Amino acid sequence: MKKEVWFGLSIMAMVVLAAFILLPAPAEMTNGHLGLLMLALVVVAIMLGFPTAFTLMGMGMIFAWIAYKSQNPDLAVQQTLDLMVQRAYSVMSNDVLISIPLFVFMGYLIERANLIEKLFKSMHLAMARVPGSLAVATIVTCAIFATATGIVGAVVTLMGLLALPAMLRAGYSVQLSAGAITAGGCLGILIPPSVMLIVYGATAGVSVVKLYAGAFFPGIMLATLYVLYVVIIAKIKPSMAPPMSAEDRIVPLPAFAQVVSKDVSNTVLPGLIGAIKGKRNAAVPMRELLSHLGIALLPLLAVAAIMGTIYFKVTAPLPVETVEGVVAMGGELSETSDDQEAESVSGLSEPEADGLQTPPGTAEVAKAEAAPAAEPTKEPAPAAAVSAAAETPAAQAERQPAPMSFWIGLASCAVALAIFYAYFSFVRLEIFKMLLGSFFPLAIMILAVLGTIVFGLATPTEAAAMGSLGGLLLAAAYRRLNYVVLRESVYLTAKTSAMVCWLFVGSSIFSAAFALLGGQEIINTWVLGMDLTPVQFMILAQVVIFLLGWPLEWTEIIVIFMPIFIPLLPHFGIDPLFFGLLVALNLQTAFLSPPVAMAAFYLKGVSPPHVTLNQIFAGMLPFMAIQVFAIVLLYIFPAIGMWLPEVLYK
Amino acid sequence: MQNLLLFIDKVSTWIGQFFSWLIVALTFMISWEVFSRYVLDSPHAWAFDVMSMMYGSLFMMAGAYTLSKNGHVRGDVLYGFFPPRLQAWLDLILYILFFIPGVVALAYAGYGFAAESWAIHEHSNITADGPPVYPFKTILPIAGAFLLAQGLVEIVRCIVCIKQGEWPKRGDDVDEVDVEKLKEMVNVKDEDIAKLDALVTAGKGTHK
Questions:
Q1: Are the CB atoms for A189 and A150 separated by under 8 Å?
Q2: I want to staple B146 with a disulfide (CB 3.0 to 4.6 A). Which of A30, A348, A574, B64 is the partner?
Q3: Which residue from A1, A392, A498, A381 is spatially nearest to B66, judged by alpha carbons?
Q4: Average pLDDT for residues A133-156, to the nearest whole number?
């Protein structure tokens, strides 16, 4: 047999031996010691490779029987049976876990809608000017796609097929390419909506809604740190990530766009409007011009709609804290969707809108008027304004003037829009159209699912079901929905849900036995006896979880070990929500820590034969360091994670 | 004997796949309920109970199916390195030590649990006029029985492996990461990957 096998077996033997040596002699053993023995044995049994759900179930049953027997031998069997069936039934009717199959189903459907190819292509064209653009595009694509699907293996494999060849051809180093793909692919388990957070929420009794709100910014932060790292590397060592060559950046323009950009203007709005109004080119059909103008104006309309909604929300007589929440989130939303304006709306309701925004604003509105395509939007806006005006007298006294921050936001949106349209060339219009077909559907879906959960409009279950429905529609829209795809998604969903939920059945029986034996109390007194400061405890806990990440999967770590850590938290004054965010970040590293990182093996499976596992591992290490850095950042500035839940659910 | 085992395998798969379609029903049901509540303003009191029954039946009945496709999570850090015979021995021992007692107890206890519920015609108490829960509770012993049958098949698989030195083949099924299918999906061929090798080796030459 191989050396690894002996190494592994001897480690297990040592654990068992240590457990027996450290524990008191059998005669003096209390139930609590038995609980600790059970914990040591279960780690060994899991490492033996037997399906964990049944290891936990069997061992939990045996030790629960022992615990009951010590109290009342006559009733022990019946009590054990009752315990098992109650625990199993509580998992069957658990109202948190129910969203797992739904989110999993949504993930499989989206994966099969095959958006990733377009997404990657449009991303890397959109980012052509960023240093290390291919690697940055890889990370962003991974982050979005992995968030929507949550399937690490499929994302890494797909990106290995798409992005790795592209990066190698562009002369990127193998390490950097491999690191970007594996690190990016794992983001999906952290950024909500993720199954990991549901599992943590169900185990720790923390609201999944709060976890989602809390994990959003740490997830974004981690992705941003990855991107920053790649950009810096590309700047310092261009040999590892050379800039894109000119011919790679060329975006083929459709015929009409070539004509217009040459004859009228290379900027989209003047170009299209000029082509429609003025010197008409016979070669260019009107319909095409109008539809493109419509597409080009989408950002404007989106910002107009968002800012308009915010305006009425903000000025509505509402309790103060709600207003704050809305304002805060409004800033977020307008940032993500970028640009544009509620010019038409603000112009109507506030005649003397400040001068700053007027020049770009009026120009924009004037142009919008020129386009029939924009008419539908013009109408609702005044209508909304009028209806709001009708309401205003009644609520006049309470209705507050929009806060300064709103006007600042409005002005900055207007400026951003103006800049956006000033640089909006036909090449960018093509890229924008590609993004429209790949990036925006996914981003909107994720934000819609998350938004409804986080703002309390729907429960996670409802949002997950709507997300699955969205996945179905998305797959249908991309003409990928057929019986085979649906059947495969359904079967995979059943297997994944059965895996997670049976694990829950096993672990809830196991943790009941652990609690019955009083193992928890021994651990509590032991940890409290060490007299740790909260910081020390936190570091200890994270190191333990990090180490467990090597031999165990995240599901096992959460369902077996979180019930042990959670009861200790109140003593150290740590919020279980915050702890959960740290754990979620921490378990990310488990996916990237050699030699067990699954992501590396998936990538190896589709990479050219001369890319070695060692190269992939070497590429992952810097990203792992970033993850550790991110954990430290989150610990030092808890507001990164806690700000949003605190604002929303004070 | 062989035929019987294959038959059980098939039944587990069929039952599991049959119940997995509940996810589609669940999706539409909740979506409809959301629409009905927020748009039509007529929520249904039974919706919550029915949701959790669908979810519970889905994953419980898929347990045996998942087992037959080796889909339950394993700690395979070391297991993966073991030769097939050792794997089979370990599995066999642990099936007998943990799986059989655990699942037998679950199915037996589940039987009593469901029988009591049938006896009193139990209805859900989450809402005032809850739907009956005894059919749902009956899922527990049934799922346990299927799981047990599948476990016996797995034990025979272990014995076959111990005798032959390699694992008998499992029936085909969808994989979460089916590399060939994914390659097809994004139009990448093996030759393309092989061609890239030149870049990898060339890169090594110039940098070092």
A1: yes
A2: B64
A3: A498
A4: 87
CB contact under 8 A, A611 and B200: yes
Angle between helices A460-477 and A426-454 (to 10 degrees): 150
3-state secondary structure of B177: coil
Cβ atoms within 10 A of the Cβ of B191, count? 8
Instruction: Mark yes or no for CB contact B73/A503 under 8 Å.
Output: yes
**Does residue A164 sit at the B interface (CB-CB below 8 Å)?**
yes
pLDDT number for residue A279: 57
pLDDT in tens, A602-639: 888 888 888 888 888 888 989 999 999 999 999 888 88
Measure the CA–CA gap between A509 and A370, rounded to whole angstroms.
69
Kindly list the distances between the CA atom of residue A404 and the CA atoms of A134, A315, A357, A389, A401, in Å, as whole numbers in the listed order: 40, 12, 14, 21, 9
How distant is the Cα of B208 from the closest Cα of chain A, in angstroms? 12
Q: What is the DSSP string of A254-309?
A: PHHHHHHHHHT-SBHHHHHHHHHHSS--TTS-HHHHHHHHHHHHHHHHHHHHHHHH
Q: What is the pLDDT of residue B21?
A: 92
Q: For A298-314, write each residue's pLDDT tens digit.
A: 778 888 888 888 777 77
CA distance A501 to chain B (A): 7
B contact residues 41-80, partner A, Cβ 8 Å cutoff: 48, 51-53, 55-56, 58-60, 62-63, 65-67, 69, 71-80
Number of other CB atoms surrounding residue A633 within 10 Å: 17
Closest by CA position to B95, among listed A45, A494, A6:
A45
pLDDT at A248: 66
Measuring CA to CA, how many Å separate A313 from each of A96, A246, A322, A336? 31, 47, 9, 19
User: Tokens 């030195």 sit at which residue?
Assistant: B165
Nearest to A303 by CA among A292, A313, A311: A311
Q: How confident is the model at residue A1 (pLDDT cuts 50, 70, 90)?
A: low
Q: Record the pTM.
A: 0.82
ipTM for the complex? 0.90
Phi, psi of B132 (to 5 degrees): -65, 140
Q: Best residue in B24, B30, B95, B147 to probe A by mutation, most A CBs within 10 Å?
A: B30
Residue A342 has pLDDT above 80, yes or no: no
- Which pair of structure tokens corresponds to residue A449? 């699912």
HEC secondary structure over A120-181:
HHHHHHHCCCCCCHHHHHHHHHHHHHHHHHCCHHHHHHHHHHHHHHHHHHCCCCHHHHHHHH
Residue A558 has pLDDT above 80, yes or no: yes
The pLDDT value given to residue B1: 67
Residue A529 to residue A523: CA distance in whole angstroms: 10
User: Taking the alpha carbons of A40, A43, A49, A53 in that order, is the dihedral positive or negative?
Assistant: positive
What is d(CA A279, CA A293) in angstroms, rounded to the nearest whole number?
17
Selection from A515, A507, A643 nearest residue A575 by Cα: A643
pLDDT tens-digit map of A350-406 = 333 343 343 444 444 444 444 443 334 444 444 444 444 444 444 445 566 777 778
Secondary structure of residue B137 in the 3-state scheme: helix
Query: Residue A293: its pLDDT value, please?
Result: 79
Cβ contact B201–A89 (<8 Å):
no
Preceding omega of A376 cis (within 30 degrees of 0): no
CA distance A637 to B40: 45
Query: What residues of chain A lie within 8 A of the CB of B179, using their CB?
Result: 157, 605-606
Q: Is the pLDDT of residue A410 over 50?
A: yes
- Predicted local confidence at residue A481, as pLDDT: 82
Test A45 with B98 for CB contact under 8 angstroms: yes
Residue with tokens 């079967």: A491
